[in-house]
Design a protein that fits this description.
By secondary structure, this protein is mostly helical. The chain has a domain at about 10-120: D-Maltodextrin-Binding Protein, domain 2. The chain has helices at about 10-20, 30-45, 55-65, 75-85, 130-145, 150-155, 165-190, and strands at about 25-30, 50, 70. The protein has a 3-stranded parallel beta sheet with strand order 2-1-3, covered by helices on one side. The chain is globular, with a radius of gyration of 18 Å.
């Protein structure tokens, strides 16, 4: 949110949007967060107009100047404007708080669990990749995160939550995100396979 917008919580944003339907704008980029966010808005009956963007940095800069009032962004992209005091962070979509920003609630803690979506980062290979090789790669990644504090600290600084699970855990997390997105797509009338 731009710092001059008179809101302090995600609930305040919803209340403001209900009080002024169609008067707020949100910056959107094509992707999973957009589908989830737009589906959530529709499911709670909130009219905030989408302004499409190609570049996430432009969206954050426009948020800082008040051209748009809402943006669901990766913390790493918004961090410079947050630290400059130009935008305020109201909540994160992770299932747990990020240690880099411990005072920022999750969307579930803010009262909107339907907006929960962990940012998944992983390595992908061909579907025919043997499970043994997948497990070995996962073990190597865990070892790097356990021994290389620089890499782990850089991830944590950007509010990421390192969770180097194995292939089965990663596949399960992907399936959970697909279910969240399928639900949002259904609300939006988007056909899925």
């Amino acid at each position: 949110m731009p710092v001059d917008l008179p809101v302090q919580t995600l609930r305040n944003v919803v209340e403001l949007a209900h009080a002024k339907p169609g008067k707020l704008n949100w910056a959107g980029l094509t992707g999973a967060l957009d589908i989830m966010f737009e589906g959530w808005l529709k499911s709670i009956g909130v009219d905030i107009k989408k302004v499409p963007y190609r570049n996430p940095v432009e969206a954050v800069n426009d948020l800082a100047t008040g051209r748009v009032q809402v943006y669901e962004s990766a913390y790493a992209i918004a961090r410079p404007q947050i630290e400059a005091g130009k935008i305020k962070l109201l909540a994160i979509t992770n299932t747990m708080r990020a240690s880099a920003i411990p005072d920022t609630p999750t969307v579930a803690e803010a009262g909107y669990p339907a907006l929960t979506m962990d940012g998944l980062v992983g390595l992908f290979g061909p579907p025919i990749m043997p499970m043994g090789l997948r497990e070995r790669i996962a073990t190597d990644i865990k070892a790097v995160l356990d021994t290389d504090a620089i890499i782990k600290d850089r991830l944590i600084m950007t509010a990421q939550i390192p969770n180097p699970g194995g292939p089965a855990e990663f596949a399960s997390s992907i399936d959970e995100q697909r279910a969240v997105l399928a639900k949002a797509a259904k609300v939006l009338g988007i056909a899925t396979k």
